[in-house]
Each structure stands twice: as structure tokens, then as C-alpha cells.
UniProtKB/TrEMBL annotation:
Residues 271-460 form the Bacterial sugar transferase domain. NCBIfam families: EPS_sugtrans (TIGR03025), WcaJ_sugtrans (TIGR03023). Belongs to the bacterial sugar transferase family. Keywords: Membrane, Transferase, Transmembrane, Transmembrane helix. This is Putative colanic acid biosysnthesis UDP-glucose lipid carrier transferase. It comes from Chitinophaga ginsengisegetis. The chain crosses the membrane at residues 7-25, 37-64, 76-96, 108-126, 276-298. Its main location: membrane.
Length: 467
């Protein structure tokens, strides 16, 4: 860690320590009774434990990372995680170590609440103050850009349009100048030593292209069409997304151009455990009587089987059998004369009277909970499409196959944002895919809960695009 970064880290820790002490004292004052000793040796022990725990948890959850170029939302999430884990730690202490603490257990809840509010407010004020200082020319980092090509100039424009980041370009170094440098060309790479010695520079940004080989782009595009993750030993900013990450394989830096929280095996297992518990409860409490009732209604409305089975593609392009309650007449056409998939349309003659209600309320999708139990699908994820529609979209929709790096879902982020029904109009399928990719790259347990809740609300009020 550089000296400047080290001082910055210590100052941020010190500010948090002051906030923790003040919130601890405020909480202690609130719960103290008449005649209590306000601050005993035991309370001092608790405060020390709190500060140590906060430091360890905060550093583990990246609370003290550099947030200079990020919005406050990133820091807010780190604060929330730290406070929650800190509160869980204190709860554990009171239940298992300090059972005879003479004050109400509301201490932990109130302390956590005050800490969250205070830390958030203080860090927001500090963030805004630093932004204002940087905009006025203070707390600036001087950088030297090596490379005057397209990459270097785009990076330079990013600096100019984001002065609140707190960076100032001292100049450029390259083998040849660029007419757009406005006198900021400082010399060739062979002059770098002289330039660094004669200018006050904090960081050197290397923006030289490693190669102009078009094969790199072809490999990436082809791999992503087949739902394969790409790791490259290069700095290919043109292909990177906001979720790109880098790690080391031996001495080689490997850049993963697109990542997801679900790459974490622990998150996959937690998601799976939640889905199994949730689905089991539904089968015991609701589906045990709802499935037979829907089956009887389907049988009374039209001849044919109760369940409709359809082959679709799931995780890693593996084919799965997707189950639904039959909502159309038996032997309905699935494709037209030219082989194109016949999507359901408004007032579609193939849909039965009961089927129209089932589709409007999403009840036709309920048998896919069997798919969840079997492990073919998730509660929440990109919706799997029928194979004819899948084949059409695979070669025409950008990044379509990246939906298959996770399990398909009964419902998804695209569906709760209104992307249901036909996709005949240009751009509709691309919009749906964009929503799916956003979900994959921003997955969290709470996002799944939000999507499930929104789906339930849509089932109750009905969806105008479901027919």
C-alpha cells in the first residue's frame, strides 16, 4: 500500500471508530437505568470488541476499498453488509458468551441501527466533500498516459468528463504525437525516465494496444454465442463489461470479461437450498390441493392431457423437458409452414377458455416447480424458450446465448419488467435478453425475493402481456 493510500485508509478507519464510540455511548445512555454506572469496565470490553470486529468485518467486505471512481451506492452496500454482519456477531456474543448482561437485548438492535445511520451519513458527507474538493482542484492525482491511440484518447476524454474522479492528465508519451493532444505530448517512451523525474506524477497509465489481431474478437464472439466464459491474457477493454474481473494463474493475469455473483459456488448452493425449501413448502401447503383442482378444470374444458411437455434448452445448452399445465387445444400447431415458431397471440384460437385464465395468472407455469425439484430450473432466472424460437434468436440476438450460463427460471427480471408475450416487434427480444443479462450480473438473494414478490403481485392483478 502506498503512503498516501495508507494515510487515507487510517483516516477512514479513525472516522469510523469515532462514530462507533459515539453510537455505542448513545445506545448505552438510552438503555441505562436509574443508578447504573454509565461506563463500566465491561462496557469498555464490549466497545473494544465492537471496534475490532468492525475492522475485521469491514476489511473482509471491502468497506475500505478505493471508491474514488464509483457512485456512493457501492459504498452503501458495503456499509449495509458490514453492519448486518457486525450485528450478527454481537447477537452471538450476547446469546453464547455474555448471557448475564444486565441490560435489554434491544441494545444490539439499537446499536446496529444507530451505527448504520451514522456511518452512512458520515461517509456520504465525506464523499460529497471530497467530490467538491476535487472539482475545485484539490485532492487530485496526477497521471501520465502512455499511448496516444484510440484507447489512450478515450481514457483521456473519460478523465475530462469526470473531473469529480480527481484525476489530472499531466501529459502523453508515445513514439509519435497526436494532433488532438493540445501540446500535452511530452516525448517518446525512451524519454520516460526524464519525464517522470521532471514532472510530479502519481500513476502511469499504459494504453498501448498489445495487438490488432482480429482473431481475438472472433474467438470472443464465437465463444459467447456458445455460452462460454472468456478469459484472456490481455487488456481488452473493448470487450469488457462492468463485471469484468482479474485474477492470477501462476504468473499470468487472467481477465474474465463477464462475471456473475452466481460464479460463486457458495451462492449457487444457497440459492439451491432456498429453492428446495420454498418449493417443498408450496407443495405441502398449496399445490397438494391446487394441482388436482386445475387438472380437473383442464379436463372439463377440453380433451387431452393435463400437462404439456416441451423440450427447451437449459444451463450450458443442455436440453431439458419443461412442464406446464396445458392451456391450448390438443395437437395445436407449434410452427407455421415455414418452420417459424408460432407464438401465442391475443385472442389466439388455440387457447382454451381455462387456458386463457391460467396464462393470464401464470398458473400454467406451476408444474415447472417439478423442474426446480429435479434441478433443471431455478425459481428465478432467464425464461427458457421453445427450441424453434431459441434457434431463431441464437443467431440474431446479441449475447442471447449468455443467458444459458445460469439455470433458466420460472420467472425472471425480464418478466416482472413487462417483457412477456410476443416478440415479433423489432427490439423486443433484445430488450428481454438485456434484462436477463442484468439479472445474471447483479444477482443477489434479495433480488430473487423482489422478483418472486413482483411475480405474485402480477399473478393477482393479471398481466396485460400474458395471453
Amino acid at each position: 500500500m502506498k503512503p498516501g493510500n495508507h494515510i487515507n485508509f487510517l483516516l477512514r478507519l479513525l472516522i469510523d471508530y469515532v462514530v462507533l464510540i459515539l453510537t455505542f455511548l448513545s445506545t448505552r445512555e438510552y438503555i441505562s437505568g436509574l443508578g447504573d454506572v454509565f461506563f463500566s469496565g465491561f462496557n469498555l470490553l464490549l466497545l473494544c470488541i465492537s471496534i475490532i470486529a468492525w475492522t475485521v468485518i469491514g476489511m473482509s467486505l471491502h468497506l475500505y476499498d478505493e471508491f474514488r471512481t464509483r457512485s456512493f451506492s457501492y459504498e452503501f452496500v458495503a456499509i449495509l453488509k458490514t453492519v448486518l454482519l457486525h450485528a450478527c456477531f454481537f447477537t452471538f456474543l450476547f446469546f453464547y458468551c455474555f448471557k448475564y448482561y444486565p441490560y435489554p437485548r434491544t441494545f444490539t438492535l439499537l446499536y446496529a441501527f444507530l451505527t448504520f445511520v451514522s456511518i452512512t451519513v458520515v461517509k456520504f458527507i465525506v464523499k460529497q466533500s471530497l467530490l467538491r474538493l476535487r472539482s475545485n482542484g484539490y485532492n487530485i492525482k496526477n497521471i501520465l498516459i502512455v499511448g496516444t491511440g484510440d484507447t489512450g484518447m478515450k481514457f483521456y476524454k473519460t478523465i475530462l468528463s469526470n473531473d469529480h474522479f480527481g484525476y489530472r492528465c499531466v501529459g502523453f508519451v508515445d513514439e509519435q504525437t497526436n494532433p488532438y493532444l493540445n501540446g500535452q505530448y511530452l516525448g517518446k517512451i525512451s524519454d520516460l525516465t526524464r519525464i517522470l523525474e521532471s514532472h510530479e506524477i502519481d500513476d502511469v497509465i499504459v494504453a498501448l494496444p498489445e495487438t490488432l489481431n482480429t482473431e481475438m474478437e472472433n474467438i470472443i464472439i464465437t465463444s459467447e454465442k456458445e455460452a462460454k466464459r472468456v478469459r484472456i491474457i490481455a487488456d481488452c477493454h473493448r470487450f469488457c463489461t462492468s463485471t469484468a474481473s482479474m485474477n492470477f494463474f501462476g504468473k499470468f493475469p487472467l481477465l474474465t470479461i463477464r462475471t456473475s455473483p452466481l460464479d460463486d459456488l457458495a451462492k449457487q448452493r444457497f440459492k439451491r437450498l432456498f429453492e428446495l425449501c420454498f418449493t417443498t413448502v408450496l407443495f405441502i401447503t398449496v399445490f397438494s390441493w391446487l394441482f388436482p383442482l386445475i387438472g380437473i378444470l383442464i379436463k372439463l374444458s377440453s380433451p387431452g392431457p393435463v400437462l404439456f411437455k416441451q423440450e427447451r434448452w437449459g444451463l450450458k445448452n443442455k436440453k431439458i423437458t419443461c412442464y406446464k399445465f396445458r392451456s391450448m387445444t390438443r395437437n395445436s400447431d407449434v410452427v407455421d409452414a415455414s418452420g417459424r415458431y408460432l407464438q401465442a397471440t391475443r385472442n389466439d384460437s388455440r387457447i382454451t377458455s381455462v387456458g386463457r385464465f391460467l396464462r393470464k395468472t401464470n398458473l400454467d407455469e406451476l408444474p415447472q416447480f417439478f423442474n426446480v425439484l429435479m434441478g433443471d430450473m431455478s425459481l428465478v432466472g432467464p425464461r427458457p424458450h421453445p427450441i424453434p424460437l431459441h434457434q431463431e434468436s441464437k443467431n440474431t440476438i446479441q449475447n442471447y446465448m449468455l443467458r444459458h450460463v445460469v439455470k433458466p427460471g420460472i420467472t425472471g427480471w425480464a418478466q416482472v419488467n413487462g417483457c412477456r408475450g410476443e416478440t415479433r416487434i423489432s427490439g423486443q427480444m433484445q430488450k428481454r435478453v438485456d434484462f436477463d443479462l442484468w439479472y445474471i450480473e447483479n444477482y443477489s438473494f434479495w433480488l430473487d425475493c423482489q422478483i418472486i414478490f413482483q411475480t405474485l403481485m402480477n399473478m393477482i392483478k393479471g398481466d396485460k402481456n400474458a395471453y
